[in-house]
Amino acid sequence: MTENLRDKPDAYWRERLTPEQYHVAREKGTERAFTGALYKNHDNGTYECVACGQALFSSDAKYDSGCGWPSFDDPIHREHVELHEDNSFFMKRTEVICKNCGAHLGHVFNDGPRETTGQRYCINSVSLRFIPKPKA
């Protein structure tokens, strides 16, 4: 398990994250749809939290939902993420955050593939770091 970083001061995050990463992960921002570096990534590997390195999603769970952000039907381990009610912008949504460091990742919706979990974890590319699976 990685170090618990939830109580680190603002300066800690500003030193480690780019301005865009900081805005999304620490200020609950979002990147524009269809612009994220990982949106069209189809390689095999693991998606980690950009802030702390906690493994969050597998490429096996990634699918093209057409929403403009990387979409997954389930996290690697559900205990690696927390879900919180988000009523901002006059909408009722469920926010997804990294349980280890508190980074904002995106939102989860109940309109995902019915043949799996039925969920769509709509996650900002900038909140993730992709680690390719080693080639055999």
TrEMBL record:
The cofactors it requires, by name, are: Zn(2+)
Cofactor binding, per record: Binds 1 zinc ion per subunit. The zinc ion is important for the structural integrity of the protein.
Which Pfam family, any one of them, does this sequence belong to?
SelR
Listed under catalytic activity are:
L-methionyl-[protein] + [thioredoxin]-disulfide + H2O = L-methionyl-(R)-S-oxide-[protein] + [thioredoxin]-dithiol
Q: Where is the active site?
A: C122 (nucleophile)
Q: What is this protein called?
A: Peptide methionine sulfoxide reductase MsrB
Q: Where does the MsrB domain start and stop, copy by copy?
A: 10-133
Domain of life, per lineage = Bacteria
Recorded hits in InterPro entries, A to Z, give: Met_Sox_Rdtase_MsrB, Met_Sox_Rdtase_MsrB_dom, Mss4-like_sf
What is the similarity comment for this entry? Answer: Belongs to the MsrB Met sulfoxide reductase family.
| Keywords, alphabetical | Metal-binding, Oxidoreductase, Zinc
* One term of GO molecular function: zinc ion binding
Binding, Zn(2+): C49, C52, C98, C101
Which GO terms are recorded in the biological process aspect for this UniProt protein?
protein repair; response to oxidative stress
Could you tell me which PANTHER family the record lists for this protein? METHIONINE SULFOXIDE REDUCTASE, METHIONINE-R-SULFOXIDE REDUCTASE B1
Q: Which HAMAP family match?
A: MsrB
